[in-house]
Amino acid sequence: MKVAPKLILLFNDPAGVGASIHAAIIPNPSSPLHRSEESFELSLEGYEIGGEKASGEVAHFVDRDGELVVTVLLMDYYDPPVLACAVHEVLLSIERDRPTALTLILPFVSPASKLKIEDEFASVDRKKSIYGAQLGPDTDFTHAAVSKTQKLPSSTRIHYEPLACLLQFVHVLKVPTVLLIGQTSQHLPNKAIKEELEVLHELGDLLASSLNLSFVKDGVKLNQGKTSKVIEEPWRALYG
Q1: Which partner for 203 in 19, 29, 84, 182 could form a disulfide, CB atoms 3.0-4.6 Å apart?
Q2: What is the model's pLDDT at position 48?
């Protein structure tokens, strides 16, 4: 799978966060870049999973010379254990045609219940700010992107399967990676959707500005009341 040197990797989660980011990132009005879209579908037969495929949508930002500058890849959402197989197959496909200087950008919005951040300096006013971390080799881009965020404490515990699974593979690949997480608190549903939108807007602005793109807030729509299933099987421990 051909991708740009800057690759944003998202999941089409039930809440609509990934799909919103994928749809809302566009070229700047004065930019020579244009957006090109395509879909992908990868077989999972090699994992002995009948009837399942790793699929999703891809948006490329292309310059006047036809060179890919930024790619936004939206993977379909899978529950474990199919999740690990799908993530591995997508990353393997990218690795086969990998750009010389590939950088992964992983933006997520997570409720507090799925992200345990032990930050002794945290305050009520900071609950909506973005946490960031560099993984793999340090580059000017990863350093600049993370410098605009709060540092994600090393003691953070992730209980969101797609992100935890993805990070395991990223550590193996040793690719320069920027992890951006917007954390929301625990509220009643009508307040939670408003807070999640605010965090998503902040995350989208940070993401787009880091890549010289735009984030269109008006088009962001979340699926109110839909969340990922909580799964308690023992193999969840494999994700850390």
Answers
A1: 182
A2: 87
| pLDDT for position 240 | 42
* Residue type for position 136: G
Give me the phi and psi of 170, to 5 degrees please: -60, -40
**Whole-structure pTM over 0.85, yes or no?**
yes
Instruction: Provide CB contacts within 8 A for 118, sequence distance 6+.
Output: 153, 155, 156
Annotate 52-92 with DSSP letters as a single string: -EEEEEEEEEE-TTS-EEEEEEEEEP--TTHHHHHHHHHHH
Element (DSSP H or E) covering residue 94: helix 82-96
Contact 107, 124 (CB under 8 A): no
Tell me how far apart the alpha carbons of residues 211 and 239 are, in angstroms, rounded to a whole number.
30
Query: DSSP letter at 113?
Result: G
Does residue 84 surpass a pLDDT of 90? yes
User: Which range, of 54-58, 127-131, 147-151, averages the lowest pLDDT?
Assistant: 127-131
Nearest to 223 by CA among 198, 203, 202, 197: 197
Show the tokens assigned to 214: 């735009």
Using DSSP's 3-state secondary structure scheme, residue 49 falls into coil
N- to C-terminal Cα distance for the chain? 28
Phi, psi of 176 (to 5 degrees): -55, 125
The per-residue pLDDT for range 1-54, each reduced to its tens digit, is 999 999 999 999 998 999 999 999 999 999 999 999 999 999 999 998 878 899
Question: Which one, of 96, 99, 240, 110, lies nearest residue 166 by Cα?
Answer: 240
